[in-house]
Amino acid sequence: MEQIQWSYSSLKDYIGCPKRYQETKVLKNYEFQPTEATIYGNKVHSALEAYVKNGTELPANYKQYQGYADGIIEIPGEKFPEHKMALDITGKPCKWGSKDRWVRGIADLIVINEDLAHIIDYKTGSSKYPDPNQLKLMALMAFAYFPKVNKINAALMFIMQKVIVDEMYTREQSDELWGVFYPHLERLKTSYENDTWPTNPTALCRFCPVATCNFNKA
């Protein structure tokens, strides 16, 4: 079996439903169809990136987020908006499109101030069920990319609901943080090796693009 290449979103898809993962990521029988919510989220991300990076004025319909953006700009340190990171299987940085990449992801914003980093992920969805594991992965990758950083303050910023979920990580916690992902990666590896992709029926099945699944009631 070839080396598995993954990202936080793809692993989350697998955890949610291995069968959906197989149909969309492995067999590619179905394509992701953007929704109004995802389109809006992408536009907000682009506007905030341009504002933080270049000072580009926020469009009128996004002015409500300027307070958050101004607060981000005031964070001291060198800023890396939409920072792409990729690691090989040894945990070392590699090129984004490298065939040897193991995991990759994009941090909405990283701010480096000596041995302290801030990682911010903008969210335009609901804060009802926040998932900080994405922050853990971004922190692990940032530790690899910025060797002088020993502490990371990472935050999910739910800008529409004015909610911030933050966590602090240290470099010494790296093994513990990787341990969050290894069990799921082992399951994913087993699915590839044995070609086993069980369904995981939930209330979200009606939103699944896999129309041939018995649990899709759309």
For the structure shown, list the relevant keywords.
Trna Endonuclease, Chain: A, domain 1, 218 residues, 5-stranded mixed beta sheet, globular, alpha+beta
Question: Would you give an account of this structure?
Answer:
The protein is built from seven helices and five strands. The protein has helices at residues 8-16, 18-26, 36-54, 66-73, 133-145, 174-178, 182-194; strands at residues 78-88, 101-113, 116-123, 151-158, 163-170. It has a five-stranded mixed beta sheet with strand order 1-2-3-4-5.
List the helices and strands and how they pair.
Elements: H1 8-16, H2 18-26, H3 36-54, H4 66-73, E1 78-88, E2 101-113, E3 116-123, H5 133-145, E4 151-158, E5 163-170, H6 174-178, H7 182-194
Parallel strand pairs: 3-4
Antiparallel strand pairs: 1-2, 2-3, 4-5
Helix pairs in contact: 1-2
